Amino acid sequence: MIKNSFEVLIRKWYSFDSQMAPILKHLIASIKDKNIFDTGDFLIVVQALEGYATRFRPDFPKKNKLITLKEQLESLWLEFSFVPFIRNLNIDLDIIVNSRHYYSHFFPKKANAHVADGIELYQLTQPLKIILICCVLSETGFDQQSILNIMNAYKSRT
């Protein structure tokens, strides 16, 4: 699928600078096969998405002085919604944000804030991985059609 653009893509991949390096490390860590899932796995994916949005999409529309995690995730979801799986996601961004704050900053659980754990946290993480993969593919130089083809092949294997 990429043989005509392989040279350009591989050069791009190996020329990523320190801005992209931690995001790539987090992506690789998130897709490695593991026997267990824990909150760290969720945090790796959310942190990589947040880092990607901050470093590579600084022009996302801002409602506040600083763009919120929820706004970043929503913008990334919209950017990659040409992928049917992403477009059809039914994820609650408030739960993702609440969970990220709870597990990352050890904030106390608020009575009205839903924080995911266990299988629910795992299920929230999986579509976020798909969005992260799309982010990296996009930054590598894949166009929308190529990303769509790759994600269709990826989804058929999972």
TrEMBL record:
This is Apea-like HEPN domain-containing protein. It comes from the Bacteria. Residues 43-145 form the Apea-like HEPN domain. It holds the Pfam family HEPN_Apea. It comes from Mucilaginibacter polytrichastri.
